[in-house]
Specification:
This protein is α/β, with parallel strands linked by helices and 502 residues long. The protein contains 16 helices and 21 strands. The chain has one domain: FAD/NAD(P)-binding domain. The strands form four sheets. Strands 5, 6, 7, 14, 15, 16, 17, 18 and 19 form a nine-stranded mixed beta sheet that branches. The structure holds flavin-adenine dinucleotide. Flavin-adenine dinucleotide binds next to helix 1 and strand 10.
């Protein structure tokens, strides 16, 4: 097939975007149905440059090990409710199994190119927060997922886990939990490796520099994506019975083009991000952890500060943030300042105004964050690392999250921080909006998409067997006490394959 000859093309599935979501869906579909023709269309000249790129997210393998925002509620008797942390752990386990299979099958390269062991630590200050963390630890460590979680309110112990936290810190009540088996993940590297494999498969094509400008139904109930192909300097169209809009911040505009009834009233609210980054080997060497604290003031859950070890392209650095920033762009590289105004339609204006009126604290928080100086940012960093010096840190842009705003929320004016999967009534289209916990749970998210849009790929006994080769625990609830033994067997095998402590 001469790729250059095409201006009109037919495929079995169009995947828009080259981030972790489309790449994971593409490989899973091809593994389940090797005959499928799949076309991936990416606006940028290179693959996965937006939210999935290494520096555009925090690279935390979210498994509920350290994120205090997953345990905000308490039971009636005062115990911390840890059910969300348990759910996220199970979802991340699916991702680990998929990546382990990828390595075994030669789809992914050596594990250290995309996943590295980094301890996950939760860190709190004040007597009240210490009591909260102790209760959280009691609840979590009673579950087999978190049996290895350690707690300490002793300065020396915390210092041994993460020396920067205590260096220069005055006497005050502090506590931390630590799980040695946490991870740092380069989701961009995974997406690019998955897509390299997909592009080499019969009937599949990954097309960078192809921005989808229109998405419409055809008279035969298929979808036609029209895109501008910058490499060929031409317009081309791809038609398929199934389309996945994994365009991150670009998804909302495409849904509006597709004129989906469910997208009526849907709006987007972009929140930019920035990190402080340190490359000084002496400081980097001292910290080997992802340390999550509590959300400050009106900060949304995804703006909870953390001090992280990152491993990108084999190089270790430290990252602190995120600092939220005010933007009207929906994408970092491919976005335009007109993205937000262009997304406002008569049908979503009421929802957007409701959100504006109902979230004044959030708006004030974003404005305050957006006007921060380096001194303000260093003050936030010193809450974690009291001895931090400005000359060791530089500011880097993170990705942009476009939070979904839905009409169905009535008067509530809710900003959705989670990932929203939207499907057309006939399930021929699926789209992702929102970001958290995002990349870590990409495998569970795309399994849900397949279950809704291509259930035929999951029912057949042969395909179920195939799925269990890829995801051994598929269909098993690992959360129950009865699954504990089986879980530890699978977990050990998965981590061994991924060169993680096991
Ligand atoms: C600051 C920040 C920190 C985060 N931290 C974490 C974390 O620690 N752990 C975690 O698990 N998750 C984290 N996330 C969430 C995670 O990054 C996202 O959930 C995930 O990367 C989304 O992947 P995606 O494939 O949907 O989107 P993206 O990676 O954004 O990919 C979308 C792609 O679509 C392309 N595109 C857009 N419009 C078009 C168009 N019209 N035509 C063709 N292509 C188009 C874009 O160029 C882009 O390549 C974080 C996100 C942010 C912003």
């Amino acid at each position: 097939m001469n790729k250059a000859e095409f201006s009109e093309q037919f495929s079995d599935a169009i995947l828009i975007g080259s981030g972790i979501m489309s790449s994971t869906l593409g490989v899973l579909l091809k593994q389940l149905a090797p005959d499928l023709n799949i076309t991936v269309l990416e606006a940028a000249d290179h693959l996965s440059p937006e939210a999935s790129d290494g520096w555009h997210n925090a690279g935390t393998g979210h498994a509920g090990l350290c994120e205090l925002s997953y345990t905000p509620d308490r039971h009636a008797d005062g115990r911390v409710n840890v059910s969300k942390a348990i759910d996220v752990f199970q979802e991340f386990e699916m991702s680990l199994q998929f990546w382990a299979h990828g390595v075994e099958a030669g789809i992914l390269k050596a594990p250290t190119t995309f996943i590295n062991p980094v301890a996950h630590v939760s860190f709190v200050r004040s007597a009240e927060q210490v009591a909260f963390l102790r209760s959280r630890h009691e609840q979590l460590s009673a579950h087999h997922f978190f049996a290895d979680m350690e707690f300490s309110d002793e300065r020396d112990k915390i210092s041994a886990w993460a020396p920067l936290l205590t260096e220069g810190r005055p006497a005050e009540p502090i506590a931390a939990t630590r799980v040695a088996g946490g991870t740092d993940v380069d989701f961009g590297a995974i997406a690019r490796q998955l897509l390299d494999w997909l592009d080499a498969q019969e009937g599949c094509e990954v097309c960078p520099a192809c921005r989808v400008t229109n998405l419409q139904r055809t008279p035969t109930e298929s979808w036609r994506a029209t895109c501008h192909d910058r490499l060929r300097g031409s317009t081309r169209s791809v038609t398929a019975p199934f389309v996945f809009v994994g365009a991150g911040g670009g998804s909302l505009h495409l849904l509006q083009k597709a004129d989906l009834p469910d997208a009526q009233g849907l709006g987007g609210f972009p929140v930019g991000g920035q990190w402080l980054v340190c490359d000084d080997p002496e400081i980097v060497e001292k910290h080997d952890a992802k340390v999550y604290g509590q959300a400050l003031g009106a900060a949304p859950t995804m703006a909870v500060p953390h001090l992280d070890t990152r491993v990108i392209d084999g190089k270790r650095s430290l990252l602190f943030g995120p600092f939220a920033s005010w933007t009207t762009k929906f994408l970092h590289e491919q976005g335009r300042w007109t993205d937000l105004p262009r997304s406002i339609k008569w049908h979503n204006l009421p929802s957007l105004l409701r959100v504006g009126a109902g979230n004044l604290d959030l708006i004030r928080y974003l404005m305050q964050q957006g006007t921060q100086s380096m001194a303000d940012r260093m003050a936030a960093l010193r809450e974690f690392y009291p001895s931090a010096q400005p000359e060791d840190w530089r500011l880097e842009d993170a990705g942009i999250r476009v939070q979904a705003i839905k009409k169905s929320d009535g008067k509530a004016g809710i900003v959705h921080y989670g990932t929203e999967v939207l499907t057309s009534a006939d399930n021929t289209m699926a789209a992702l909006l929102g970001a958290s916990p995002g990349a870590s749970t990409s495998v569970q998210i795309v399994l849900d998409v397949i279950a809704r849009c291509r259930p035929d790929l999951l029912v057949d006994g042969r395909q179920q067997n195939r799925l269990r080769q890829i995801l051994p625990s598929y269909g098993v609830d690992l959360r129950t006490p009865e699954s504990a033994t089986q879980f530890s067997l699978w977990a050990r095998a998965t981590r061994k394959q991924l060169a993680l402590p096991h």
